[in-house]
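Catalogue entry: protein
Contents: sequence, fold tokens
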Amino acid sequence: MKKIRTLIVDDEALARDGIATMLESDAELEVVGTCANGVEALDAIRDRRPDLLYLDIQMPRLNGFETLERLGPENCPTVIFVTAYDQYAVRAFESGAAGYLLKPFRDSRFREALDRAKQQIRNATLAGSARGEPSRSKGLLPVNETAAGLKSPAARLAFKVGGDYLFVDAGAVVWVRAEGEFVQVCVGGQIHRVRESLQAIEDRLDRGRYARIHRSFIVNMAHVARIAPTMYGDYTVLMSEGTRLRLSRSYRHALKTLLPGHFA
């Protein structure tokens, strides 16, 4: 099997050198270059066609996510994010990244992420060969873009619950409810408490599948079992697993989404 072409992108020289040193003993890899920022990385990725990318997030000029967006999905290699900040982990995992290394990281964590990346690359290569496509791997599953340049929703979502990450299919979320500094996320009858804003979660949901019915509630339209009017123009929305949520009159326009054809 040909060597996995690897590019290292980090604005800290010590970090770039450290990763390169850790990769030296791996006979399956070939480091094809290092870059100090996202602008350099764009040129290097297009010229050197790496299979694997070690990518810092917080960088001058272009951060890691902006770099991938500029690059475009057709040119994306498999990615392992390397950063000193943990708040980007959810977004990184939703992009399909093979790993998320939090500086300073242990050798074991480095190796685990690398092993996942290798497997991702092998799987992508085998799948491409089966379809008769070139062997160039695209292990990263980037967020797609519409013709208008707008990002489409991710197929899978990740939520940080305590110290763990919960991964769910995008349509598996039944409802979301704000609770002070936290948000309750209902998935298949289980309620998970997530430290994230309701707006941040709404931005990641499919607008064709979810509707905001209250300043504190978002519902999956496929799980709405009944809608009943109450006093003062409000409605009660009964969800498939039994939860009752309020549709406030200020969100009455949501009825057009929930009940198409019934409200002008």
Remarks:
- Residues 134-152 have pLDDT under 50 and may be disordered.
- The chain has two domains: 4-130, 156-258.
